[in-house]
């Protein structure tokens, strides 16, 4: 079975590959944020609508230091809006999604009509898999007369994970009308096609994203993921080496190759168990 066939048969598998591969380095993002289909964090793709804090450029050790500092500031004043928003972001990026949600739930109670708080609350909900509640929060943060492209893209990423691919892509297209050729939207669209097994189309969007405004390390490494999923491992490794150390790039591609091999073996085993017609 080809990698495309595997993906079409098992959406959960491909999302697991994206999340784990991205978190381990094939994307520079260390988060399993479910508000993006490729950064999965995340992969990817979308950047937070939150203020300040260049967290995307931090390694895991730096993120943990930032978490400790922001945690102390938050503890001193849980209603400190900026501290809570940034603390929640760092918590999600270090895999503590439940704690991030608790922080944002308290802040949403304190600022029930704050659009930025509602948007961050929606992202925190999505990170824990509470997709329906996340969509509700994001839609309350949105203003139909002046729609925010970042919220549209984030909402699309959530719908993609709910299997509502058509609705998701409609939102990405709306976001692109507002902000044409934005890398994060194109990357999310690309990952949407990965989830449906349309890897050639996914690669087209990822290559557009790489050359678009706002492109960063995560977007370029999402391209490496898409190329690797098509079995072009050497090419994927070369792309990843531009963003990672040679050892990290090799490790991620080996992991991806192993996951695809295991999934192929599992599908062949299931086929053998089926009674012959």
TrEMBL record:
It comes from the Bacteria. This is Tetratricopeptide repeat protein.
